[in-house]
C-alpha cells in the first residue's frame, strides 16, 4: 500500500455528477423541499436497487440514475457544493481506512481532470454552470485540477456547438478548461454532426477524449468514425476490434475503469479484460476509478452489503483500482512494481495541457 500511495497518479475519467459523495447527495435531497417528491422517491428506489446487489444488468442501467441526481444539482450553490466535495474527495486525505486495513489515508490522486456536461437549468445558463464549476476547480493549483467539458450524445448539434464555443471562449479567457469529452448513453444520438465542433476545439488547443466502444452493440461504423476525429484519449474502448485499433492515430491513451467494467458487465473477468491487450502492446493507458463504481460500491459498503473485511471497500478508491494491478491472480493482474509505476506515470503523461 505504501508503494501505491507513493505513486504520483492522475484520475482522468471522473464525471462530476456521478462522483458526488453519497452524504452530499442525501444532504442536498433534504435541503431542497422544492424537489418533487417523486424525484426523491426515485433516488430511494435506485438506492434500494443498488443495495440489493453489486452489479447492474448492464451498462445502460447507469443512465437513468442521472435523471434522479440532476434536480438536486441544478442551482449554482448546489453545483459549487458538489464540485467542492468531489474535488476534496479526490485531492484531500479525508477518508478513514476500511476496517481491517491500517494504511494512513492519503489523497486518492495527485491530479484530477474533472469532466461535466454544462446544463442550462431554470437557475443558470450553461455559461454560469461552467464558471461555477471552474471557480471551485481553480481553488486548486493547475498541478492538481482541471476541467473537461462533456458533450452529451443526446444533444442537438446547436447545443453541442454552444458547449464547444463556451469551452473555447473560457479557455481563451484564461480559465482552466483543458479538454472536450463525448459522453452519454452509447445507444443514443447521432454524433457525426459533432465532428466539426470537436475539431474546432482541438484547433483551439483543447484535448479530446471520446467514450467509445463501451457496449458491444454500439461498436460499429461509429467507432471507426470517432477514431477519425483523432482523439487524444479514449474512454473505455472495451470492444474495439483489431480493425479499429489499426486506425489509431498517435496512440490515444485508453482510460481504463476496471471495477466499473465488471459492475456494468461489459467485461467478465480480469483474464478477458482489454487492459491485457494494451499492456502487452505497451500502449498508453490511465487507470481510473470511474465514478459510478465508487458510488455504488461505497453504498454497498455503507449498508453492509459488503463485508468490510473484504477487499471490496478497498476497490472503491483509485488506490484500490491500482491494487488490482499489483495483486496476484485471481484477485489482480500480478504486475510487477516497475510496471505499475510505469502505468501511474502514463496517467500523468496523458493529462491535457
Ligand atoms: P455530468 O456530466 O452530468 O457531470 O456527469 C454525468 C453524465 O456523465 C451522465 O449524464 C452521462 O452522460 C455521462 N456518463 C457517466 N458515466 C458514463 C459512462 O459510463 N459512459 C458514458 N458514455 N457516459 C457516462
Provide the descriptors you would attach to this structure in a database record.
single chain, 353 residues, alpha/beta, TIM Barrel, 8-stranded parallel β-sheet, 42% helix, globular, binds guanosine-5'-monophosphate, hydrolase, Metal_Hydrolase
Distance between the termini: 30 Å
Which descriptor suits the 3D outline?
globular
Q: What's the count of strands?
A: 8
**Count of folded domains:** 1
What binds here, in terms of ligands, is:
guanosine-5'-monophosphate
Q: Calculate the mean pLDDT score and round it.
A: 83
Return the CATH topology: TIM Barrel
Multimeric organization: single chain
Uncertain runs are 35-40, 46-54, 293-315
Number of helices: 15
Approximately what portion of the residues adopt beta-strand conformation? 5-15%
Assign the CATH superfamily.
Answer: Metal-dependent hydrolases
- The CATH architecture is Alpha-Beta Barrel
Description:
This protein has 353 residues and is of the alpha/beta class. The protein has one domain: Alpha-Beta Barrel (TIM Barrel), CATH 3.20.20. Helices cover 42% and strands 12% of the residues. The chain contains 15 helices and eight strands. Strands 1-2-3-4-5-6-7-8 form an eight-stranded parallel β-sheet. β5, α9 and β6 form a beta-alpha-beta unit. α5 runs parallel beside α6 and α7 runs parallel beside α8. The longest helix has 16 residues. The two termini are 30 Å apart. The site of guanosine-5'-monophosphate has 16 residues, from β3. Keywords: Hydrolase, Metal-binding, Nucleotide metabolism, Zinc. It catalyses: N(6)-methyl-AMP + H2O + H(+) = IMP + methylamine. One of its GO terms (molecular function) is adenosine deaminase activity. Belongs to the metallo-dependent hydrolases superfamily. Adenosine and AMP deaminases family. Pfam families: A_deaminase.
